[in-house]
Amino acid sequence: MSDILFLAVRSVWHRRIPTILTMLSISLSVALFVGVEKTKDATRDAFSGAISRVDLIVGPRTGSLSLLLYSVFHVGSPTHNVSMKSVEYARSRPEVNWVVPFSLGDGFRGFPVVGTTPDFFERYKYRDGYSISLSTGHVFAGDSDVVVGSAVAQTLGLHLGDRVVLSHGHTEDGDGFEKHEDHPFELVGIIAPTGSPLDKSVYVSLVGLGEIHRGLGGIGEHDGDEGDSDKHHDDHGSFEEKDGKLVVTSVSGFFLGAKNRMDSLNLQRTINTYDGDALLAILPGMAMGELWKNLSMFETALSVVSFFVVVAGVLGLFVSLYIISGQRQREMMVLRAVGAGPSAIFALLAGEALCLVAGGVVLGSGVMYIGMNILKPWIETKFSVNLNVSGIKSQDLIFAGCLLMVGCLVGVLSSVKAYRSAMHDGLGTKF
Amino acid sequence: MTALALTGVRFRYHPDSTDIINIKSFDMNRGERVFMFGPSGSGKTTLLGLIGGLFLPANGIVKVLGSDVSTMGHGARDQFRSREIGFIFQVFNLVPYLNVLDNVTLPCRFGRRVSSGFADATVEARFLLKQLGIASVTNSSVASLSIGQQQRVAAARALIGSPGLIIADEPTSALDADSRTEFLSVLFAQAKREGSSILFVSHDKSIAGQFDRSVGLADINNAPGRAGGDL
Question: From the CA of B49, how many Å to the nearest CA of chain A?
Fold first, then answer.
């Protein structure tokens, strides 16, 4: 065996350029596969991890996906509001542990602004129960305080104490329709990266959100079904002024935690049939599953890409080994002439192929894991996607095993070809 | 004891095709140097494959140094070939990724024993390379050698371990006249020292006089279409 190893090492070294090129091609396909799979996993995790430990999301009666999209992902906006009476009704239910209302609709330089209560930071969890923690500062205490997600702070270069002027309405490309210059906020806290939509959001108190609408037509007269003339104010709840103080009269929706999770279904039914307001309560997990099912084409597309990446890699491997084996026909004949048996020739060619594939797999995985670790902070900030690059999953091992088996198979096939050719030509001198 | 004895040997590549080899009888004595001539396509290379145990005859007995290679199993034939038969080809004799020394000692990796009087394969290889006049290239890459040097390296590889039979398949056809004569003289000298028989096949009759005996393949091969050597 040591003689075969001796020959294999020298043979690989002799053909180092094509060997390295083949290995690079394998490693590229491995890196792409690992990259695509990790991206797929990360995207799915980012989706399913966007909300956790919230038993119900309640909003005005609309589609469940629509409610999920605007309440969790801040995509789209509610068409109606939920009155604070409804919020208090839910809070008063004996099965309910906590209620956190939220209002949406404003923006800050392209990032959605969420009006909520300080409880939000305690109750709202992400990724299987992770609590929101602040990397710096504290949760908003006053009505002029603002807390921003990590991606917001990093993208806009914000620091504690910075003055933040929110926009009236939220547009994707930046500021809203009108800036609330008369009510600037002070940045008091930055949320540590979560890999969820929290990173790209701006949080103020509900009353703070109301303050910026004083004098802009957002107080009192707009509380829900006011028509399209001032549609924007339907988005972020409504407010009343009482004794010079703002009182929240409606919100976009609320998150609800039950005392016992088993009660969630009963609560959902109770809320959905509540007479005082047209409400819709959804179970986040189920809605998330439904949403992901709708987006499964995206996952399927990535799987198809993965599959073809592997096919391309295997084909490349086959072609290069096949070409190499053709070039080695004469060498095989010399080895046969000096007494190398078929098993020695198979061991030599299959062993070389196996080493080639193993090298490619290790190189490709290594490059992708190192690359992902380097890019992880940037990807988290840019896309709010948490890349889990540390764990090697069983599918990675299956893929590596398949490639190694294919490598071995191609090695055996090429050695059969070389051996047959050598036998056919016998000891002839022609090629 | 005969170095080689073929009796009633017939061979065809496919059962439906015609015979390539049909030899009633052919013998070689130990230490004998036989020149076998025949034009291209006359079945020379196939015959060498049969003698080397790479092909099995459809009928007949192929005895090399008293052993019937046609009845041996695969592994035994490979071992026997490695131990008892040294090959020299026309060109492309050497494994390109091994240096001269490793090419010469290659048969010893597959079972050939080192000749008595030598500590190991490397010592014998160095001795043979010196005897063949190419000691200076011992550690060189084979790609840097001239054709003549490559053939001498191939001769050293064939001779290492003193195999009983050297089979040479047109080893001088790529050499000029001077190199050819020199190559043959050093090959004969070393084969004589090692006690090896030489079966030398070629279409070039001009060197036949340097051998103990000369045989036309067409004279001993009765295969249809081959006897006249017109293929």
Answer: 6
CA distances from A222 to A105, A138, A241, A276 (A): 14, 32, 12, 18
Domain count, chain B: 1
Under 8 Å between Cβ of B149 and B137? yes
pLDDT exceeds cutoff 90 at B119 = no
SS3 content of chain A, % helix, strand, coil (to 5): 55, 20, 30
Domain that holds residue B131: 2-220
From CA A29, how far away is CA A315, in angstroms rounded? 11
Alpha-carbon gap, residue A123 to A131, rounded angstroms: 8
Give the contacts of B137 (CB within 8 A, at least 6 positions apart): B100, B129, B144, B145, B149, B153
**A362, β-bridge pairs:** none
Beta strands across the sheet bearing A82-83: A82-83, A245-251, A238-242
Q: Are B78 and A15 in contact (CB < 8 Å)?
A: no
| Cβ atoms of residues B185 and B170 within 8 Å | no
pLDDT more than 70, % of chain A: 85
CB A167 within 8 A of CB A106: yes
Distance CA A138, CA A120 (A): 13
pTM of the model: 0.67
Is the distance from CB of A287 to CB of A68 less than 8 angstroms?
A: yes
Question: Does A47 have pLDDT greater than 60?
Answer: yes
Position B230 in a domain? no
In chain A, residues with a C-beta closer than 8 Å to the C-beta of B55 are: 423, 426
Residue A71 pLDDT exceeds 70: yes
DSSP state of A391: P
Look at A338 and B98 and tell me if their CB atoms are within 8 Å.
no
Residue B86 forms part of a structural domain = yes
Q: Which of A32-41, A116-125, A311-320, B14-23 has the highest mean pLDDT?
A: A116-125
pLDDT over 60 (residue A425): no
Interface touch B102/A10, C-beta < 8 Å:
yes
CB atoms within 10 A of CB A54: 23
CATH number reported for the structural domain that contains residue B181 in this entry: 3.40.50.300
